[in-house]
Amino acid sequence: MARAVTTNRKALNTAIAWIIGLLIFFPILWTILTSFKTEAQAINDPPIFLFFDWTLENYSIVQERSNYMKFLWNSVFLAGGSTILGLIIAVPAAWSMAFVPSKRTKDILLWMLSTKMLPAVGVLYPIYLGFIQLGLLDSRVGLVIVLMLINLPIIVWMLYTYFKEIPGEILEAARMDGATLKEELLYILTPMAIPGIASTMLLNFILAWNEAFWTLNLTAVNAAPLTAFIASYSSPEGLFFAKLSAASTMAIAPILILGWFSQKQLVRGLTFGAVK
Amino acid sequence: MQSAPDFKTRLQVWLPKLVLSPSIAMVLVFVYGFILFTVYLSFTDSRILPSYGWVGWENYSKLFRLSHWEIAITNMAIFALLYMVICTVIGLALAIFLDQKIRGEGALRPIYLYPMALSFIVTGTAWKWILDPGIGIENTMHSLGWESFAFDWIKNREYALYTVVLAAVWQTSGFVMAMFLAGLRGIDNEILKAAQMDGASNWNLYRRIIIPQLRPAFLSAFVILAHLAIKTYDLVIALTGGGPGRATELPATFMYSYTFTRNQMGIGAASATIMLMTIAAIMVPYLYAELREKR
Question: How many helices and strands, by DSSP H and E, does chain B display?
Fold first, then answer.
């Protein structure tokens, strides 16, 4: 909406918008700052904003005491593994719906997507009981499968919308020239689909990285990712804010960076397509 | 060589259906199959382990006699109402504001969205600091000289639930803003220009033209916020653990504690079934309307 806005007004609006942005960002900023303070400074009265003795000791203590690297590796393994597994199953499905649509394609998509809104507690028992039976509790493989399953509808749907954006004329032209299905896939679709697949991977990685319900309920020690680690860290350690902040900062750093580059995909995926 | 092309054409027809079926089958079994199992459990005498003795509606009548569950659903009603209304108001206000040609909008949008993109288990760390009366906002105000300032909601049974609302609003407002902003950007410029020519004031422009055109955005925001509210789990776990007492207990945390600490699987399943039905009651009409629109 292009409306005439005076320069002063614009400067004021910009200033207010950034102040709101700072307010929203404050809890995150505070976590990062606190992670560089000593425990005493972290709960100092009055609070110290910037002028404290910056230290890295929290990071080394967290690593020493809790084997942080293991939790980090679990997070990477779970988020990465479930994303890749999900893509293997979803890419063909999305390809099929986008390029060989049937009467019911729209219904199937919407139906799939709707399942993502249902609460996780609805499927907790069968999964929990199945995990006990199969000895999958606290195993990375089990969690990769569960995380893949809960995000599969989103992956299929997102890939579908990206594949839909590939112009059909190109395919028709290739078919006219006698391209086989294999050539069509290899030389035309794949190169055009890669950006969409990359965006989907990014979104799904973030969703799986943040997942708390399943990781808290199905892991204990071996397969616990960073979210479970932070949740456990906050209770026995009481109010050790500096160390907790260091652990938290390490857990959010990858998402802060990924989120910066993928905000559009994030909104698109999180709103179930209400926002493109 | 007669059969080779035949096989190929048949493959061309069947392949799309074949590669689609694993996804459909997985969603069907994993979501609907498992939900049916949960619903079934809610009619059995399962306790620590599933058991298949049929007890009819007994778990439901037990559930609704529990004061613990009554607290959880009362909290849910208060939480959901406040959360949805405040998020919608703030989200819409932010969207209208950000639509006024703000410098650096591209950099602001991810910042507004970060709370939603980060796990609350992790961002809850800072909230615990902010809300703790001994060190957070209350203490900061005291050291700035405002001695009478009091903000101890998180330790107060009466107000602890509102801290969960506060954190939830922080987490989702920027995201609701993004939805409304997309809606605003989709409005036809010509209509606005015509209205401005006719001398419509800014206020009237929004009230009579822009906001009515945002109806689809309001509808999606409502459905998304409603299902997020009912699913709320990690906020409570990270902030209050359901306490003090049961002041911030919600259905999802209730279900968890009844199953895993009290070994009452039947009652837990009944509570899960009620949550499922509530979400379905909101979602089904919405999906139905969406499908009809697309036809």
Answer: 15, 0
